[in-house]
Amino acid sequence: MKEAPQLHQKKVLVLGLAKSGFTAARILNKLGAFVTVNDSKPFEENPEAQELLNMGITVICGRHPEDLLEEGFELVVKNPGIPYSNVLIQAAITKGIPVWTEIELAYLISEAPFIGITGSNGKTTTTTLLFHMLNQDKKHPLIAGNIGTVASGVAEKAKTKNIIVTELSSFQLKGTVAFRPDIAIITNLYEAHLDYHGSVEDYRASKMKLTENQTAEDYFIYNADQSILVEHAKNCKAQLVPFTLKGRTAESSSADDKWVYWQGEKLIERSKIVLAGQHNLENILAATAATMIQGGTKETIIRVLTSFTGVKHRSQFIVEWHGRKFYNDSKATNALATKSALEAFPENIILLAGGLERNHSLEELRPFMNRVKVLVTFGETAQRMTEFASECGVESIEQAGKMDDAVEKAINHSASGDTILLSPACASWDQYDSFEIRGDAFITAVQKMTEANE
């Protein structure tokens, strides 16, 4: 870990704990900063705060005092989930106090270079694919960021031989200043998280910060099928590595209906790739380009693409049973994500969908509902899903309770050759504490019912 002398004896407020705040506070304390932690959870219910207090760190819990910034802080490191509309964050900005996320701290202390991966969709799959490719090629990758491993904690232990493959959200990138990845990847860009960012312009600007500090020594891998990214690339100082799904090119990675190519040469037939879906091709092309830039081999890429079944809860293949294939896409918490899943399968889909009612539009799904043979719907949105599917011409619709009931109904309406797909298009919180728990419930139900009927 680098010493980061610019943080020594600096008075720092860490706002919000969870994993990232706890790790940032511990590292800042180790670097010699004067750290105060402020978290809304009461101290007696807050084991992270208790542990930090035992390290000698000042801890304020249970509330966010509005006069806290009067104590002369020189830096705020905030949990990415805390919006910029927060009173303390607004006060810090007004006072000219820098506001970081722990990604900036990770960059300052890391001995290893970074590959930064962002986009509206596909970040996790691209990050995981790339990690597997580099790992099999013995490039000593470490995985970090929004994928669940705190980047500053990974950077603390990283050595110069490593490369940190980092999934980054717009929330995390907005709080960076000097962060500069050797390789930046933007998979795609759509409208998202406007409740947090306030405008599509702020959301896009936050994403584009990924390339802001890159130089001619670095690489920018981007989706050349999106005009907004093509325009952004014109102002980027890094070496440009575009990828496209619109046919073979000699520039980088590309794909047509039958093949994936690297610099115009055939790499792998699409029919041999285990990971399903047109949307996943973007992730494959991005990961392929980064692997080749890092000196990886085509043989390794092919080996990974013929074995990688997907990230858990993201179009994850579960099992084939009596000619039926089961996929867990519980991470699809909005219509756009479910649209991508439906695009992956041309016909005979038995779709399990529904969940928390947020009154989001379902119109993204309409062009693909003719692929749905049966809809099994559940949760608060069940009735609206039923009405929408009926409008779209889906003839067989079932309403279910929780996941066991939904899977049972799906199996009862299925036949050999069908795809049984959990892709809810809704958040999980009406019935499950997280999309992960919902996805696990689906996997358990599928395993129980298929094993019982062998």
From TrEMBL:
Domain of life: Bacteria
GO biological process, any: cell division
Catalysis: reaction(s): UDP-N-acetyl-alpha-D-muramoyl-L-alanine + D-glutamate + ATP = UDP-N-acetyl-alpha-D-muramoyl-L-alanyl-D-glutamate + ADP + phosphate + H(+)
Pfam families listed in its UniProt record: Mur_ligase_C (PF02875), Mur_ligase_M (PF08245), MurD-like_N (PF21799)
Family in the record: Belongs to the MurCDEF family.
Name of the protein: UDP-N-acetylmuramoylalanine--D-glutamate ligase
Upper taxonomic lineage: Bacteria, Bacillati, Bacillota, Bacilli, Bacillales
SUPFAM superfamilies: MurCD N-terminal domain, MurD-like peptide ligases, catalytic domain, MurD-like peptide ligases, peptide-binding domain
Organism of derivation: Planococcus versutus
Keywords, ordered alphabetically: ATP-binding, Cell cycle, Cell division, Cell shape, Cell wall biogenesis/degradation, Cytoplasm, Ligase, Nucleotide-binding, Peptidoglycan synthesis
Domain Mur ligase C-terminal, chain residue ranges per copy: 313-426
Positions of the Mur ligase central domain: 117-290
